[in-house]
Amino acid sequence: MREAVITVKNMVKKFGDFVANDNLNFEVYKGEIFGFLGANGAGKTTAIRILCGLSTPTSGEMKVAGYDIYRETEKIKRNIGYMSQKFSLYEDLTINENIRFYGGIYGIKPEERKRRSKLMLDRLELTPYADRKIGDLPLGWKQKLAFSIAILHEPDIVFLDEPTGGVDPVTRRQFWNLIYEAVERGITVFVTTHYMDEAEYCDRVSIMDEGKIVVLDTPDALKKQFNAANMDEVFVKIAR
Amino acid sequence: MIKIENLKKSYSTTVALDDVSLEVKRGELFGLIGPDGAGKSTLMRILMSLLLPDSGTARLNGFDVTTQHKEVRHVTGYMPGRFSLYPDLTVEENMDFFATVFGTTVKANYDMVKDIYQQIEPFKTRRAGKLSGGMKQKLALSCALIHKPLVLILDEPTTGVDAVSRKEFWEMLKNLKAQGITIVVSTPYMDEASLCDRIALIQQGKIFSVDTPQQMAADFAEDLWAIRSPKLYPTAQKLHELPKVISVNSFGQELHLVTPKGAYSAKDISDFLTKKGETEIQIQRTEATIEDVFMLFMTQHHTTKQ
Questions:
Q1: How far away is chain A from the Cα of B100, in angstroms, using its nearest Cα?
Q2: Rounded to a whole number, what is the distance in Å from the CA of B105 to chain A's nearest CA?
Q3: Once rounded to an integer, what is the mean pLDDT over residues B229-251?
């Protein structure tokens, strides 16, 4: 039996009469890449915000990184990384300033922060640009940087909400290489995407429609179940 | 319909457009394909007369974009990259607003937007800010069409949009094209590039090639292999060590390996991987897609990062 780092039981989230998450049940295992798919408005971001401790569910039992979603949100926040769809880094601050800021928030000691920051910037080949403002960087660089900073404090789990939206094919693949490297370091990855080739890169995939999880399995099993050549066909069969 | 000659545009020290020339024919569905920061949005804004070039000319239906901006705007519809409707106005109010700005009414031009607008009309009293991504996009397209433009300029209309809505959106574009509207569209999705009549590959402010997607794919000059294995990531890392490798990229459930024309046979590559300890390898030649073309182009034109 694999160790679960996220457990979700009967998760419900309502906004007035609108049911955004309608009784979700799933587990995410340690060290896996979990693809959380669904059409626009299916309820993905709502669920992610709850799992990150940023929003309270209406009902249900959830544990993230071993902590309770109602009572231990601060502990959850310390043990996860989150790269949101809209906001990632401070555009008016430089790369170095952003790293210092996030390092400070997560209580990483200055020397350790410098060590990790050097490794990270060398890996991204961004060392010469450390004093550039984020706002002046191309989107692809920003996204890779935002991801690397989201895991600077070496969390157990990282949540990525459409990290590659609008990014060109080359940069998208570089981004996924960063994801694989994070997995090799033992970080569990929870990711949403609209690129169906990226769905193939996940160990397991769930597909949401109108607030419910319709299927959850490995990409291979889903392709077999829906008699589909690829994940794009699976997705279209479910979401249309 | 659109004639661009020697356009140049710089922002302080950054060259956004470097001597761009291009023609788009009447009724064509034309794709601008390039990485982030390549200059696609700058080019579109100049065509919309929202931005002045440093030098060069662009004409749209014969109107000069620098001196005849009123005429240009009357014959073009524009969807900027970011959602730019009024979030506090309802669907209906946004439509009325854009119609009024162009001196017309929703009623007068209803036939133009009918097919698309009907899909969101049940929500016409909802505020635009409260719509889902797919609906926002349909509203933005309806607003861009309400004054019956001859040309549509769409800046990454499907970024952040799910796979099903993207397919629906391209169906709508096909219908608009059938009505004779000229469409210029940019996209980061390579499967969409293949749906255009012609595409331009743009990188660092320069246009490198303009052709039909089919011809571009057929012109792929190197050998392309599709490789499957139980674990793609380690297999890819081993393939990077192949002496003459040009590139290895994941393509969904398989890897695409590019090698110089005639450099290797399938058996050579299979033997190489077996020697490295890989098992259950499937390898076969495959036809290039636009994504392969684009990625090879990026690899070959990758100048040093600024």
A1: 31
A2: 31
A3: 92
